[in-house]
Design a protein that fits this description.
single chain; mainly alpha; Rossmann fold; Glutamyl-tRNA Synthetase, domain 3; Helicase, Ruva Protein, domain 3; 4 domains; three-stranded parallel β-sheet
Length: 472
């Protein structure tokens, strides 16, 4: 069997983290089995359509590296196909026309709720004669086409959850074609998955309750049944379904904040799937090799931003410096910084960054001298006089250093430590005011690294400014 999977989002806005995981699993499964991954846009519900959502979805998938081999297919451009198959169900008695008004259906729903019954259509139009149907159509009465659910029960196998059986008495006569002529999700998805040759339907668990309707249609059409696999929900830390009320849920938001696609893919892939128990960092190629539906959990997976941050920081620390250089530039805004200097900044600060956006304030420290309280220059039990004395000594020492020393951070560090040791000076008394003077902060990279990035001239300028602050 040639494997074929699909990602079929609705164009209702951003790509949800849960949607990314669905797309990713379909992509991994298809790649694992040398199959095909396609993109279909399920836009039959025109009331929920968001302008620009299709383009945004496509762009986000591209940024995430999830390349599809077929599509995108838009269901709104395939209406004739769905009507053909709806007519086929009508002709075979597997569907019927319903002329009930919205008002009647709403009243029926209220009555059923009041009686604590499951809300479903009461089949009032099921036994209309052919002549009655034709007369109503001639009179201009609007109608929908409903699926006729047979008696008995419906059983299907789920690759993650095993065999599932649902009594047909619990299944509503689903609307297949709406009054506006558009199909509902249920008809369109069955027809498209068949015509497009989808072998494995991998999607969220919220669709489990809809599967019996789909199975009944597969059987009515005589279509070959695909393999179903329903993924557990992605959850908030309180185990509620992941939603924007508790934080970002859009993939675009994370990308725009400076999370790397590789880190997002790695983290999201492990939400409900565990390739092995001894590691957490995987390349996309390793995920393809390891992916197996049998290893996907049934229970929901907690989306832990702290864990994502840890993973993103790992990728930032280990990515090629030249690649990182290009990725960081869009996050610097209008900051003016030489490429050579920026490269040094990244080498020094990458261990302190969680996202690409973190590099903007970190880089600004090197392009613009930061304001700070002179008191911050004083080390522990020392005083202003000592801080000033130590800085003046460092200034004199650095003035006499050869310019070439600043080409090597390790060599610069070695020389300054040698100066401290030979002068029998206290390390903290020297390095603390030096670091604050150079960075403007009590928390920063080492003074040697900062000086290496700044260069001799700027280093001396900031040290002299610090002395002036202390003596003012």
């Amino acid at each position: 069997m040639t494997v074929k999977t699909r990602f079929a989002p609705s164009p209702t806005g951003y790509l949800h983290i849960g949607g990314l995981r669905t797309a990713l699993y379909n992509y991994l499964f298809a790649k694992k089995h040398s199959g095909t991954f396609l993109l279909r846009i399920e836009d039959t519900d025109q009331t929920r359509y968001v302008e620009g959502a299709v383009e945004s979805l496509i762009e986000t998938l591209k940024r995430m590296g999830l390349t599809y081999q077929e599509g995108p297919f838009l269901q709104s451009q395939r209406l004739e196909i769905y009507h053909k198959y709806a007519d086929q169900l009508l002709s075979a008695g597997h569907a019927y026309r319903c002329f009930c008004s919205k008002e009647r259906l709403e009243e029926l729903r209220k009555q059923q709720e009041a009686m604590k019954l499951s809300t479903k259509y009461d089949r009032r139009c099921l036994n209309l004669t052919k002549e009655e149907v034709e007369d109503k159509i001639k009179n201009g009465e609007s109608s929908v086409i409903r699926l006729r659910i047979p008696d008995g029960e419906t059983t299907f196998d789920d690759a993650i959850r095993g065999t599932i059986t649902i009594p047909n008495s619990e299944i509503d006569d689903q609307v297949l074609i709406k009054t506006d002529g558009f199909p509902t999700y249920h008809l369109a998805v069955v027809v498209d998955d068949h015509l497009m040759g989808i072998t494995h339907i991998i999607r969220g668990e919220e669709w489990i309750s809809a599967v019996p309707k789909h199975v009944i249609m597969y059987q009515a059409f005589g279509f070959e049944m695909p393999i179903f696999a329903h993924l557990p929900h992605v959850l908030n830390p309180d185990r509620s379904k992941l939603s924007k009320r508790q934080g970002d849920v859009a993939v675009e938001d994370y990308l725009n904040k400076g999370y790397l696609p590789e880190a997002l893919n790695n983290y999201v892939a492990l939400l409900g799937f565990n390739p092995s128990g001894d590691r957490e960092i995987y390349t996309i190629e390793e995920l393809v090799e390891a992916f197996d539906l049998s290893r996907v959990n049934k229970s929901g997976a907690i989306f832990d931003v702290a864990k994502l941050n840890w993973m993103n920081a790992y990728y930032i620390r280990n990515i090629d410096i030249n690649v990182l250089l290009e990725l960081v530039k869009p996050f610097l805004g209008d900051m003016v910084i030489k490429t050579e200097t920026l490269e040094k900044v990244l080498m020094v600060e990458r261990s302190r960054a969680t996202t690409l956006a973190d590099f903007a304030p970190l880089a600004r420290m090197y392009t613009t001298q930061q304001s700070y309280n002179p008191e911050a220059l004083i080390w522990k039990k020392a005083d202003k006089a000592d801080a000033s004395k130590q800085l003046e000594g460092v200034i004199t020492f650095i003035q006499n250093l050869e310019l070439s020393i600043f080409d090597d951070s390790a060599l610069l560090e070695s020389r300054i430590k040698e100066y401290i040791e030979k002068g029998n000076l206290q390390t903290g008394n020297v390095l603390w005011p030096m670091r604050v003077a150079l960075s403007g902060s009590e928390q920063s990279a080492s003074p040697f690294e900062i000086a290496w990035v700044l260069g001799k001239e700027e280093t001396l300028l900031r040290l002299r400014n610090a002395v002036e602050k202390l003596n003012t």
